Amino acid sequence: MSQQTTVHDPRGYPPKVVGKRLAPRLSTLDGKTIYLVDCLFDNTDVFMEQLRQWFVERLPAVSVRTIRPKETWSDDAEMRAAIAADGDGAILGVGL
Amino acid sequence: MHTHVFQRLCKATALSMGMPRLRQAYVPQPVVDRSAADLRGYIEGQDPVSKQPFMQEVLNGLLSPLDEADLQGLTFERTTPRLVEPDSEDNLQRLFEENHWTDMLPIVLPTEARVEAMLKGTSHAADTIVGRLRPTAFREFWEFTVEKVAVNAVMAGARPEYFPVILALASSGISARSSSTNSFATITLVNGPIRNEIAMSSGIGVMGPYNHANATIGRAFGLLSQNLQGGSVPDDTYMGSLGNWYAYTAVLPEAEERSPWQPLHVQKGFKPTDSVASIFFGGWYTHAGYGPRATWQEKMRRSLAAVEQYSPPLFVMDPIVARGFVDLGFDTKEKLIAWCADNALMTAREYWDNQWIQYLMRPRAVAGVEPYASRFTAKPDEVIKIFEPSEINIVVAGGETQGAWKMISGSLRATVSIDAWR
Fold it and tell me: How far apart are CA B229 and CA B221, in angstroms?
């Protein structure tokens, strides 16, 4: 039997994961305002415009507004407040 | 909404944020460079992950009722042990590799005796918190102690006398294992007396595998970054499309004694007698040249025009090159940097036709932040300056066997005291 060696674990210490409840879902989209949050990746504006047009054509009873954060990779509190004040839901996207 | 190649990362991130049931929908990769018609096709097509219509997934995300698990989220503790279960050396090497705790080269196993010896390289207690790291801005920070850094330093093959440099790098908050799709690496410059105290080499082969301290300090920075931040695993905590050979090890000391210019740490406000590490984030492009010869300006302009415009250049110049520039009247680094900033040029059309300039700089330009706002309002064919002098750096190193220089993508992210970790 080969000799047993004891070594250290090289990993750091992860933070505790704290559960967050999801926001309440809507019972209908009719008459609701949905924000499309453009996360600013290149060409996301084109994607979001196509998504907005999809809603206009297919679900005209939904009011759809596009919104963008002020900075890349930042939590824009003003943007979140605007969505909370006027919106009923939000769709965030999209990556590379 | 995400592109499908980020599926695993998106789920892992949602889990670590306590929302494993976060509603997510996917379109095919890529979105970049696709036409409006292509993207409309994505929207009207199938989610490549769920195999359901994409818009059905989006609408379900907005409308489908929540259950008890959705309302609670998920709370749990995660721990990592101090020691691994005893085993044979061969099995432990395999375990470390399979767990992605290595850079896929054999490591020095971090036995208790070796870690204890490494800890003698600093006056700081083993349980001192050194800092926090994460692979990218939207992941959670992991924390670590002096002992955990020592473990990774041992694995890299470093010696205890190098440990203050390694602790300084660990404390910087900069990860050498960014998960960016750009495959960024870090390049570290060491200045001050410690260069000679630990026998680093700024001479022949300074950027190659020829000096123990240079090589193992750089390797330690990579290993500690991946292990102390929660991993650097492809498709999960690493998304670099091409990867980066600089990530194996990239540390060099400045040849202060042979340079005609002020060393970088003094440029940044430290005393010559301070020992300091400067961390550059990049390693994406590398250009090279000689001289300065009669046509140096043309060569330099071509190199500066060929950069990735979101990542400013770090010049590494052999002392022969540096002295050549002094002979041409550039008796300070700042004068040569000013010339480079004046001659790093491209049309506004080309500048803005870059996905990372669009992503990173455009929001600032739209908000009126200079110099991006002026670049944004320039006419497409107008030639604009693409870097500020403060973004360009020059260091002197090399063996004087040839008047060679390299220009490497590298934005200076941190300059940290090594003396604080002695």
Answer: 12
Q: Which residues of chain B have pLDDT under 50?
A: none
Report, as an integer, the average pLDDT of A49-76: 94
Listed in sequence order, the residues at least 6 apart from A76 whose beta carbon sits closer than 8 Å to its beta carbon are A69, A70
B92 vs A5, A15, A19: nearest CB: A5
Per-domain boundaries in chain B = 2-72, 89-284+412-421
Residue A93: list chain B partners with CB under 8 A.
Answer: 1-2
What is d(CA B84, CA B73) in angstroms, rounded to the nearest whole number?
31
Q: Give the count of alpha carbons within 13 A of B392, CB side only.
A: 22
Instruction: Residue window 11-70, chain A: list those with CB within 8 Å of chain B.
Output: 11-22, 24-29, 34, 40-44, 46-47, 49-51, 53-54, 58, 68-70
Q: How far apart are CA B139 and CA B177, in angstroms?
A: 13
Chain B residues inside the 8 Å CB shell of A58: 55
Residues B317-341 have pLDDT tens digits of: 999 999 999 999 999 999 999 999 9
Element (H or E) spanning A37, and its range? strand A33-38
CA of residue A95 relative to chain centroid, distance: 11
Torsion on CA atoms B3, B9, B15, B18, rounded to nearest 10 = -70
* Pairing mode, strands B185-191 and B142-145: unpaired
Task: Compute CA distances A24 → A17, B31, B70, B71, whole Å.
Answer: 21, 30, 10, 9
- When CB atoms are compared, the residue of A25, A43, A49 closest to B65 is A25
Convert the pLDDT of each residue in B366-420 to its tens digit.
889 999 999 999 999 999 999 999 999 999 999 999 999 999 999 999 999 999 9
Record: contact B230-A20, CB cut-off 8 A: no
State how far residue A54 is from chain B, nearest Cα, in angstroms: 8
Residues B231 and B100: beta-carbon distance below 8 Å: yes
- pLDDT value at position B355? 87
Place of tokens 């206009």: A56
The confidence band for A1, taking pLDDT boundaries of 50, 70 and 90, is low
ipTM over 0.90: yes
| B194 close to B164: Cβ distance less than 8 angstroms | yes
pLDDT score for B69:
82
**What distance in Å separates residue A66's CA from the closest CA in chain B?**
14
